[in-house]
Amino acid sequence: MKFTMRCLLPLLFFCSLVQADEFDPVREVVRRAVAKGNPPGAVLHVESGEKTMTLVEGQRTLSPAKEAMTEDTVFDVASLTKVVATLPSVLILMEQGKIELEAEVRRYLPEFRGGITVRHLLTHTSGLRSGIPKEPEWTGYETGIRCAVELEPERPPDRFFRYSDINFILLGEIVRRVSGSALNEFAAKNVFGPLKMDSTRFLPPEDWKLRIAPTEKDQDGVMLRGVVHDPTSRKMGGVTGHAGLFTTAGDLAKYARMILNNGAGVLKAETVRLMTTPHTIATVFERRGLGWDIDSAFSRPRGKRFPLGSFGHTGFTGTSLWIEPQTKTLVIFMSSRLHPDGQGSVRDLYEEIGTTVAQGMRFTAGGPPWPRDEKEVPTVLNGIDVLVRRKFAELKGLRIGLITNQTGIDAQRRSTIDLLAAAPEVKLKKLFSPEHGIRGELDQEKIGDTKDKKTGLPVLSLYGERRAPSAEQLADLDALVFDIQDIGCRFYTYIGTLRLCMEAAAKAKKAFYVLDRVNPIGGLAVEGPAVLDEEKQTATHAIPLRHGMTAGELAAMMNAERAQGCDLKVISVEGWRRGMLFDQTGLPWIHPSPNMRTLNAAQLYPGIGLLEFSISVGRGTDSPFEVLGAPYVNDLRLAHELNQLGLPGVRFTPVRFTPTASVFQGVACGGVRIAMTNRDVLQPVETGLAIATVLQRLYPKSFALEKVNTLLNHDKSVKAIRAGESWKKVIEGWSEELAQFTQRRKAFLRYAE
Asked: Rounded to the nearest 5°, which phi and psi values hold at 557?
């Protein structure tokens, strides 16, 4: 007998291990909730790698009679419609070239207002209201679309996140107009059909009714079963971009598998990557993909353990879908939490399910996207911010020299010098300073070596006897790190410093890191001649005056085109798009140089700066590069002549001033103040050249035209102005150079538009 028991005990223990599995904890979570009647019943489907689990629990209906929940129960999935029907339909039309992500909505709905794009709708950053008001009373699909179109946005787009049904109502209508088919027909043919989602559709037929989980009673006291719960969708006939879809847990699993398998059968792999990465701008706290939720107050199904990079969505009726690509995990929870009286809530249950499923899973750490503290102010992340989030991984174990100045700060204004000096396993040995010195306070011809007061590190000047580190200065270093804010203009000397330092690093066989920074005046427009008469500190490479590139992009271009052989590594900016100006990044403005005090000045500088050796451009005034003049100028006449030109984005006001520095120091000048009226169309180089031509025409004996070439570096253009050519004709002469540069730079652009 004892022998028999000894044999049976291990067997019983083994059987208990077999019966238990990793999904038991989440089963228990759902069972407890259903036992409390909130919700009355549920279907939970989980897949992780090769493992699958489906739990069916509780009741499908309680009123008028009880019916047991079944695995094939059909649910009104409410807002899951947005990501299961509308989103893939829009993306398929994008793949076909019929919809563009950054196109304005009015391209497809001509009656809609300007300024709001398809991306704004997909990310809920349009500024539109959350829904169509109930009053005054309305009904009908066309009326609903008209209401959605006519509602005024409450804020401009890209300012904040507001979850809005109107966004997807409009997207559903875009699908209808672009494809020529109603949303339900298009989705059935292009999404549900190929995936064999046979229990998924809008407007379910009568013979499905017994499988459908009812929601609650409508305004007339009729229990909604097989009729969409969402009142707006119901008024519009049950086929809308924001709600109206009915489906099962099994069909949703087919859809989720398609995504985990890189869009197989429905979407391209690159489209799947596109839709599941953040598309909200960096200054919006919430992170949303195209349609999908990534990190917001709606991310409850992610729980506390699934990493950022996973994504999903919920439905008002008590449904959710969450997908985690690293472990190929999908979690589908289906309930009718509103049944029977509209009082149920499963928000906390979503979070508990997600947390429990992810328990014990291992995920690769690190962003992007990066976790955010609840109190964090969202900004674009410059290279130093990214490096901090990576815990300085790229620089660990290296002896480094840092090329920086006062602009080398992170988003919290912490100095890059201090951050690297305190970074574990990073050995900051010495500092190198460019024009204006390590603190950006000096405006002089030459700057000597000093010592940093806080760290005690030597500060070696690159704007004195040397313009690049010497071999001796690099001997005890493994790498140089460059972190300086450029302003997007060729003759701003920091790019010249960058090039010379890269060459020195290449000769000494040292690695060179660029902590990239945004281009404060944007990365789209380019202006000016792109061929140089001669190379010098203010014309270090063949690029136009306004080049539209970041320091990291320029470093890559110079390294390749000059065959420097530099071991270049760029820590890229995160969250910046080429169309963004500095005041759209959320980052603090630090004067890049003593006279570069505002973004307006930086935007005007590529053109107004051309004139700074010929006339006063406001150095020694409160607004450098926003006023200009000379003692011989009649301010009224100059303002009148310039305003007649109709230059885009600017107006001119007559002004008299006495600069306290630079050209005409201490001498009263007549001139103009430049008012920027529309920065989106501003062409600063065109503006500067036009001013030069007018000054040459009005004051040919006084205006020092030849000095314009100091920074223009294009003698042919100066000669054309002297010969009486119009500024427009001169600019036309640059077109071939600009076209060639635009083609050249494509290979080095890191950031999307």
From this structure: -65, -50
Per residue in 146-164, pLDDT (tens digit) is 999 999 999 999 999 999 9
As a whole number of angstroms, the distance between CA 106 and CA 115 comes to 9
What is d(CA 225, CA 246) in angstroms, rounded to the nearest whole number? 11
Q: Three-state DSSP class for 520?
A: coil
Beta strand residue intervals within 316-398, DSSP E = 319-324, 329-335
- Would the pLDDT of 9 be above 50? no
Q: What percent of the chain has pLDDT over 70?
A: 97
SS3 361: coil
Exposed/middle/buried for 374, CB within 10 Å: 0-12, 13-18, 19+? exposed
Residue 213 structure tokens = 């989980």
Mean pLDDT of the chain: 95
Tell me how far CA of residue 377 lies from CA of 283, 586, 600, in angstroms. Answer: 8, 8, 24
Residue 262 region, left (φ>0) first, then alpha (ψ -120 to 50), else beta?
Answer: left
What is the structure's pLDDT at 501? 97
Backbone torsions φ then ψ of 379, nearest 5 degrees: -140, 165
Task: Quickly list H helices, 180-268.
Answer: 183-187, 231-235, 249-260
Burial label for 727, CB within 10 Å (0-12, 13-18, 19+), is buried
Residue 265: band (very low, low, confident or very high) from pLDDT cuts 50, 70, 90: confident
Inter-residue contact 323 to 332 (CB < 8 Å): no
519-529 per-residue burial string, b: 16 or more CB within 10 A, e: under 16: bbbbbebbbbb
Task: State the pLDDT at residue 443.
Answer: 67
Tokens of 605: 């500088």
**For residue 458, what is the enclosing H or E element?**
strand 458-461
Question: Distances in Å between the alpha carbon of 555 and those of 513, 519, 566, 651?
Answer: 10, 13, 10, 36
Of 370, 418, 736, 381, the residue nearest 586 (C-alpha): 381
pLDDT at 442 over 70: no
Q: What integer pLDDT is reported at residue 691 of this predicted model? A: 98
* Residue 11: predicted pLDDT: 41
Q: How far apart are CA 672 and CA 522, in angstroms?
A: 26
Distances (CA, A) of 689 to 639, 696, 714, 730: 15, 11, 12, 9
Q: Indicate whether 586 pLDDT > 60.
A: yes
Which run of H or E residues covers position 719?
Answer: helix 715-722
Q: Which of 422, 444, 426 is nearest to 434 (CA)?
A: 444
What CA–CA distance (Å, rounded) separates 211 from 189? 23
pLDDT at 1: 43
The residue among 467, 535, 461 whose CA lies nearest residue 504 is 467
C-beta atoms surrounding 160 within 10 Å:
16
In this structure, are residues 477 and 536 in contact, taking their beta carbons and an 8 Å threshold?
no
Reported as a pLDDT band with limits 50, 70 and 90, residue 127 is: very high
The burial of 679, by beta-carbon neighbours within 10 Å (0-12 exposed, 13-18 middle, 19 or more buried), is given as: middle
The first and second tokens of residue 753, run together, are 């538009």
